[in-house]
Every structure is written in C-alpha cells, then in structure tokens.
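Following up on my earlier message about adenosine monophosphate. Here are the inputs again, as you asked, copied directly from the submission form:
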Amino acid sequence: MKPLPVGSVIGILGDGQLGRMLASAAERLGFDVVVLGPNDDSPASRVAAHTIVAEYTDRDALAELSVRCDLITLEFENVPVEALQILEDMGATVYPGQKSLQICQDRHLEKSFARENGVATADYWMVDRVSDLETALSELKGKGILKTRRDGYDGHGQRRLQTGDDAVSAYDGLDGAPCILEAMVPFAGEVSVVIARRADGMMTCFDPADNTHKHGILHTSRVPSKFPDSVQTAAIAAAESLAGALGHVGVMACEFFVLEDGTLLLNEMAPRVHNSGHWTPEACLTGQFEQHIRAIAGWPLGDVSRVMDAEMENLLGDDVLKAFGDAGPEDMITLYGKRDMRPGRKMGHIVRKL
Ligand code: AMP
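Thanks, got it. Here's what our run produced:
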C-alpha cells in the first residue's frame, strides 16, 4: 500500500471519545476526518471536519462516507460486520478488516481463535439454554461468570454466580442471549498490551500496563508493570501472534489475566484503540491514537519508547468535577466533551507522572 497522502480524508465509524481522540490525532497529522455514528452532538463529531449521523448499516450514509473518504477505520468494535462488507462492496478500504471485527465481537470465537493460535484462556462453557448453565455450574461447583457472547462492555452483559445462586434468574437476567460461562480466574493481576500493526506486517508495541477494574469498568492503568520481564515479554509475544493471525491493521489491545505463577490467560481483545492505552500520548514519544492513524495510513510507525512512569485513572460521572481541584502540577487531564454527566459514564481521564 502506498502511504496515504497528507490532506486525505479518513472516515471513522463510531462517534465516542475514542473517535474524538483519533480525529484529533489525524488532524495533527494533516488529515481531515469524517465521522459516521448514531448520535447527535457526539464527542467525535465536534472535532471532525464533517459528521454523518446515521445507523451503521444505513446504505445511503455508508455510500456518502465511502465517497467522502480515502480510507475508513473504526473506534467501536460492535459496528456490524455487514457495514464493512457494504463499504468494501462500494470499493472502500476499511482498516481493520472484517476478520478482526468478527472474531473480537464474539467471546466464543475470540477464545477459540486465541487457543488455536497457542494463547491460553480461562475455561469456559457454551450456554444457549438454562440446562447448559446448570451443567456448566455443576462442573464449576456453582461459581463462574456468565457473559453474553456479544455486545458486552464495561461489565454490562455479565453476572457473577456464587454457589447457591439461581441459574434460571441469572440466565433470564441476560434476556436469554447466547452466553458463555467462564471459570472465575484467581488472578494475581491484569495486564494489557496495546499493539499497532501495518498492512505489511510491521508492528510496534507499547509497554504492557497493569490494570485495575471497579464494577467491571477499567479504573487505572499503570506502567511499568509490576510483573517480571518474562511475563511482559510473553504478553507482547502473544499479542503479536494474535494481531498477525488476524491480519489486523491498526491498533488493537489484548487484555490478559496473570496467574500467581506468571501464566497468562487472554481475557479479551479489542480491535481498536483502547482505554488501557490512554496513558500513551502523554508518556510515550508516540501515543496510541497517532500510531493507529500512522498504521492504517501506511506511514512509518512512530517510536513508542516510554519517557516516564505513569498511571492513567478514568474519570467517571462527577469524578470529573473534583479532578481539577485534586490535580497536581504534573497531572494531565483529558475531557471528552460529553455534555450529559451520568453516574458511571466515562467523562475523561487523568494521566499522572509517577
Ligand atoms: P470483561 O468485560 O470480560 O473484560 O470483564 C471485566 C473485568 O471483570 C475483567 O477485567 C476482570 O477484572 C473481571 N473478570 C472478567 N472475567 C473474569 C474471570 N473469568 N475471572 C475473574 N475476573 C474476571
């Protein structure tokens, strides 16, 4: 692929904060951005040169996007794969491609893909009816996490089950959607690896970050990781092999559980820029948003060397109101421009120099 010329137009499917930060990075590199997403007055729309407000499978909207753009990417992994097919049928180039999306949208496909590529995961059982759940729970002595196969995010579409919990109400609580039951993993920590890959296979990888979660939502990401080099190197190698096997183009993130003995289990992959990489623009020579744009544009990838130790903390709901008051001189705050502050909603993040 020839490098995308400066002044070209990049389309982004998705209109949230990731789109906003991608659009800012693209604009800094001399590209214009067109956003397509379902929301009026979205965070990304207010940074983009042009916005198309429409559902992802709206053919007229996709036709307009493909005419306006030289290259199309995404910031949301639940964009229907059909939208990519429609765009490709119209002659558009979309990075990442359908395979990345298809596999990462479904927890069963994702885990089986990881295993086929030599990356271990937690044990899990397919749950398509209550009797499947009862059988799986009896093998797990009543404990596990029931997760919808698709459309789960930030702890939505999940139920933690303890011995004695009622399988019927847990399954009904997820509206009878196809699920998996995952064994509870007694992890020593969670790490994620944010990696960028170009169409020609060139890759760069940010330092693995240690993540903490609250109520299933990412709370902090910290670098350097507390885990030994051997664990970090293994996490990077696993992410490289998964990105290569997907033929992924752009940034993707792999989240792992780390067991006491250093064993890594893939939790999930995100075929896009990721919340656990939000420390990278401040703490590295090139941040994840710029790297994604460079990767899809076929530009030389940036140097991802880390220039400081850092911790990123998400600002949810009204956390954001006190963030400025609490911030020290070396704390860097990013706000997403969401005008409607709701409890638990991601409003911004702070990167602290450690
Ligand atoms: P997920 O949406 O699958 O990434 O889950 C969100 C968070 O819930 C993870 O980052 C973990 O902190 C926790 N979690 C998810 N699955 C498991 C599991 N099988 N065992 C223990 N904790 C889990």
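One observation from looking it over: The domain at 187-353 is CATH 3.30.470.20 (D-amino Acid Aminotransferase; Chain A, domain 1). Hope that helps, and feel free to reply on this thread.
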